[in-house]
């Protein structure tokens, strides 16, 4: 198949808010600096649902969504040296080239090499798509487009991983699980003995909880409006779980009261894993005066803005955000896979449902119903 256009099944999102169509698409051969991957398994992340809803200002249609996957390299384009056909890989929506201003800074995991093209749904070599359906160009999504049997990605976005790792599990390290762990371990750098609050107890929030346990946090307060999420959060390691609806006071005041010690309340660290700007405010304001840090992980819709009294920052609280948990994709994802294989953190436990690519609309429905953490699709 190398060098030839492949016809395969993919889930095409024709329009915002509409069901996907699983149909035949063509996937062009990888050009210079590109890799064509046979996807083995892909999960759905809430960001896929968010973009499909039409709320993502970068959302382009028609497109092929999907960014939490694992697969096998089918062929490589000119000049590709870091992977070869047969390699087991995780496509990463955040690239790492190691050579751009951003990568060289050592201060961020955001790579500048291909982001301007991935945001426009095309490949960097020629600003074109490699997908067509019934003669029409279909946009790429997040530089990954994993809801397809085959996809083309930039070499700088491909992490080569241990071929003994189960691809239908490590796909979760392509987004949600890595993001939550990294938010705690890389972005916040939580110290042993810290107190923390996690808002939103889906996959990203639970991965924060797992990271907090790893970091040795002494108190982990989970917050979720869906009580169906509470017991699992305790099982993951939350010391307390709170439903905002059980309280008359704003949730930030509830958390400050819960953590009162020597006359001062507030958690050392908080993590927003919902994507709601009001929750982001509460997450900042529940942190401790003088040193509290709040990490925004959730993605909020077009036009949404965060607000707080500047006094919250003047008095020492820090508001920050994280993309992919601060991990430098190509470098760190293979290490995460090794650590997972040694049993250092949970991954399998987030897979609550398994379906086929052809059942993808049912999988999106599951995400809306709340009982689902991750649904893994087999191609
Ligand atoms: P999810 O839907 O599984 O989890 C969200 C949880 O928030 C649910 O359990 C829901 O019940 C809860 N929730 C809803 N409203 C709430 C409220 N007002 N207060 C408390 N809890 C509330 O989603 P997920 O896949 O875990 O993703 C979480 C968020 O993180 C999404 O916004 C997603 O787009 C974003 N995300 C960001 C990154 C990143 O790199 N920054 C990576 C992955 C996901
Ligand atoms: N496209 C949106 C923002 C979406 C967003 O913030 N995405 C997160 C990853 S979510 C993964 O599930 C991210 O890492 N962003 C950094 C980046 O480079 O995209 C918008 O508002 O335009
Ligand atoms: Zn995601």
Tell me what the structure shows.
The chain is of the alpha/beta class and 379 residues long. It has two domains: 6-174 and 347-378, Alpha-Beta Complex (Quinone Oxidoreductase, Chain A, domain 1), CATH 3.90.180.10; 180-322, NAD(P)-binding Rossmann-like Domain (Rossmann fold, 3-Layer(aba) Sandwich), CATH 3.40.50. Helices cover 26% and strands 23% of the residues. It is built from twelve helices and 17 strands. Strands 3, 4, 5, 8, 9, 16 and 17 form a seven-stranded mixed β-sheet that branches. A six-stranded parallel β-sheet has the order 12-11-10-13-14-15, with helices on both faces. Helix 5 (176-188) packs across helix 6. The two termini are 18 Å apart. The mean pLDDT is 97. Ligand AHE binds next to loops.
Descriptive key words:
26% helix, alpha/beta, 2 domains, 379 residues, Quinone Oxidoreductase, Chain A, domain 1, Rossmann fold, six-stranded parallel beta sheet, binds nicotinamide-adenine-dinucleotide, binds ligand AHE, binds zinc ion, alcohol dehydrogenase (NAD+) activity
Task: Provide a concise account of the structure shown.
By secondary structure, the chain is an alpha/beta fold. It has helices spanning 46-53, 101-105, 115-118, 167-170, 176-188, 203-215, 230-236, 251-258, 277-285, 310-314, 329-341, 360-369, and strands spanning 6-12, 21-27, 34-43, 68-76, 88-91, 131-133, 136-138, 150-154, 158-160, 195-199, 219-223, 240-242, 269-272, 293-296, 318-321, 351-356, 374-378. Ligand AHE binds next to loops.
